[in-house]
Amino acid sequence: MPSPVSEPTVGEQLSGAPEDAVAALRTASKAVHSELKNRADGAKGASKAVLEATALMAADPLLIKGGIKLINNSGLTPERAIWEAGASVAEMLHNLGGYMAERAADVLDVRARIVAELRGMPAPGIPLSDTPFILVGEDLAPADTATLDPSIVLALVTSSGGPQSHTAIIARALGLPAIVAAAGVETLTDGTEIYVDGAAGTITLNPGTTERTAAEAWATTSAILSVFDGEGRLKDGHLVPLLANVGGAKDAVKAAAANAQGVGLLRTEFCFLGRDTEPTIDEQVEAYRGVFDAFPGKKVVVRTLDAGADKPLPFLTDASEPNPALGVRGYRTDFTSPGVLERQLQAIALAAEGTEALVWVMAPMISTTDEAEHFAGMCAAAGLTIPGVMVEVPSAAIMSASILTHVEFVSLGTNDLTQYAMAADRQLGPLAELNTPWQPAVLQLIRLTAAGSETEGHHKPVGVCGEAAADPALAVVLVGIGVTTLSMTARSLSAVGAVLASVTLAEARDIAALALTAPTATEAKARVRAALPILAELGL
């Protein structure tokens, strides 16, 4: 991938005639419009819609006229002029809210493309190619994923990001091998032949016969592992339901088609993000019901709004917080904006009426027993009978026994639990070694949570809905520790199911002990993989 387009210097002045700069800007915008339109004509589905919308923005008179005005009135270079014009148009669209606010990102994308065209540089984003390739870059923006075709992109390699970053999560969802925080990949040149082993985290230049054979074997295995039979179980018949993480009705329908045994995480942010105002109860009911209808008779675990940190909402969160990851996010927004959570619970309850789904509800960012008790009370007031909490904060893991006296289940969000336990931002590449759920400290917190479910005469469900559940090797460890259900991207169901089916519960417990007693994350992973030869057999 080309490097991200850098901002032109503030106040950058023309050295030539304004009319030449205007002509250059018009030519560049037309070139970008034409290139995006051609890509849209050959695309399908969501990719086609994204490219068509972006192409229209490249020819938008408001944007181009704004740039021309800055060239003529302020003497700015065409690069600086379109940069400032793009910022103004994006702000205007954002302030309009709703659908128009969603188009602000398209404006900023087009702005970068026009600047790249003016500089004679490659356009940002995923390169266009008819030949399958391995995508190498600094990182993958969320917007890039709409145009990522997994039949063309064979694997992802990025120099930044961490194991729980957006790129890593998208790779799992698409079933692509990926390596993040890969040092030195900036020196790779386009056209270099490389071999990527996502499981080992290695890149080999100029691969030989061994690597080519392994790649062919992976192509065959990945096809075999694309089907899940719909029942998660160990070799001895011990059941471990395998559920799906979804972000809306479309995801839920796909997960049901992939034979997921329910939904272990419904991310309700999908009907809140990109809005300046809170969605109405009726709007929420319609959105949730689409998910419930996809899983009649099966469990659907709804996570209440997890706003804040990397998911700010204008009407709910404070963007000026000095440390938003440790600020008012998730359940805590009820402290500062009471009413939003209560209305969401009402909407979930209304959506559950008349459906056959078994609706469970959990709150993110619960830190204390009092918070768990308060949330359970809110659920009861709304008529929701199965309340639970996310265990993402280490204090919740330590206090799980007490917390579970007030709620019916817990679900471990291993992405956040890891970053909080290790004090390592999960998006930062330099901290990738710290930010892995293989860290013995994180595994011990999971063990404490599972142990808490078996005290004081109760044995309540303990699930994992973080990305750790999608790792087949780690899934065995989690079950051995005492986790009762696993929830993951639907693409991971078959691989996790196949590996779990190769061990008994006693063997899973022995393998978990290997990881729990390891001194380092690297050693924990190595011990477990050595005890699971099926991973190598399946190319995992």
UniProtKB/TrEMBL annotation:
PROSITE patterns membership: PEP_ENZYMES_2
Record localization: Cytoplasm
GO MF terms held by the record: kinase activity; metal ion binding; phosphoenolpyruvate-protein phosphotransferase activity
Domain PEP-utilising enzyme mobile: 133-201
GO cellular component: cytoplasm
Active site per UniProt: H166 (tele-phosphohistidine intermediate), C465 (proton donor)
Pfam families, alphabetized: PEP-utilisers_N, PEP-utilizers, PEP-utilizers_C
Keywords: Cytoplasm, Kinase, Magnesium, Metal-binding, Phosphotransferase system, Pyruvate, Sugar transport, Transferase, Transport
Superkingdom classification of source: Bacteria
Main localization category: cytoplasm
Boundaries of every PEP-utilising enzyme C-terminal domain copy: 233-503
Domain Phosphotransferase system enzyme I N-terminal: 16-103
Function (record text): General (non sugar-specific) component of the phosphoenolpyruvate-dependent sugar phosphotransferase system (sugar PTS). This major carbohydrate active-transport system catalyzes the phosphorylation of incoming sugar substrates concomitantly with their translocation across the cell membrane. Enzyme I transfers the phosphoryl group from phosphoenolpyruvate (PEP) to the phosphoryl carrier protein (HPr).
Protein name: Phosphoenolpyruvate-protein phosphotransferase
Annotated organism of origin: Cryobacterium melibiosiphilum
